[in-house]
Each structure stands twice: as structure tokens, then as C-alpha cells.
Amino acid sequence: MARVGLTAERLTRAGAELADEVGFDKVTVAALARQFGVKDASLYSHVKSSQDLKTRIALLALEELADRVAAALAGRAGKDALEAFAHAYRDYAREYPGRYAAAQLRLTPDEAAASAGVRHALMTRAILRGYDLTEPDQTHAVRLLGSVFHGYISLESGGSFSHSAPGTEETWSRVLDALDALLRNWPAP
After folding, report:
1. Sign of the dihedral defined by the CA atoms of residues 57, 58, 63, 69, in that order
2. Which Gene3D superfamilies match (predicted)?
3. What is the pLDDT of residues 69-128, one digit of tens each?
4. Among 8, 33, 32, 7, which residue's Cα sits nearest to residue 22?
5. Would you say the pTM of this structure is higher than 0.85?
6. CA pair distance 120, 65, nearest whole angstrom
């Protein structure tokens, strides 16, 4: 019998909050059961396993992030859109570090196709239309942006930039300027 008040959605949200507190890698069904003061078995009628829980958290994070990015992009184009997109990702990672880590979880092809990850790709391509990139350059640019944003965010959150001047805000601004210049002058093959 399912415990009153426990649902897959509630457990997913609680798991996401736990991920932000202790790190995504430490989220398990057992850890969540301890948080609710129940036995692990009480949760298995709602989630299949710790991997299922992590996948649900990843899907939630992708959805939240897509909503945030879409709101930031509304009515913007060119460099303004690029900056809004980048800031939305970075701000989400700072505010929800465990969920951001969850959004990087490798999903099955079916899970990925049904996730908000598709929206992320479409929004990135929408930004790139403002730079007149066509295929295959658009795909190369999508990968470049993802790599730069995720790399910078990961290094910054790990403290890699905290030991020297200039500050990370100045560097972030310069990175975005450089990306804009590169996209405007994308090299010919």
C-alpha cells in the first residue's frame, strides 16, 4: 500500500532538492527514504530504483531549465539572445547545482527524445539562425556553445577560477563577446 502523500512527482522534487543540498551523485532511494522517515520499500511503489529516481530528476531539471531559457530568450535575437541563453544556464547551475548536474545525465534514446532536451536543441538552433549558420556549421556551433557553457560553468562551480584576478564575471563577459564574434565570422570549411 502506498504511503499517503508520497507520489512519484513529490519524490522527484524532493530528490531534486536533495541533489542541490548534497550533490546529485549522492541521491539514492535510501537517502530519500531517510529524509521522509520511511523504509526504502515504501518508495518502490513510486520509483523503480535509484537510477529511475535520478532519471526523473534529470527530466525535471531539463524541463525547468528549458522553461527558464525560453523565458529569457523571448523577443531576443543575435548577441542579446546568446547572452540571455548563456546567463540562464549559468544562473540555473548556480541556483540548482544538483539539478544542473542531473541535466547532464545520459538518457536512453527514447528518454532523450521525449525530454525537454529537444527544446534546448531547438532554442540553441534558434539563436544560431540570427548568425546565418547553415548545416553542418549549425551543428558544430551547437556543440561549441554547449561545450563552452558547460565547461565554464563546471570549472567555475568547482572553484577553478577563484584563485586569481580578474573575476569570473569579467571573464564570462569576454567569453560571450568572443563567441559572438566567432559566430558572426564563422570560418568557411
Report:
1. positive
2. Homeodomain-like, Tetracycline Repressor, domain 2
3. 999 999 999 999 999 999 999 999 999 999 999 999 999 999 999 999 999 999 999 999
4. 32
5. yes
6. 8
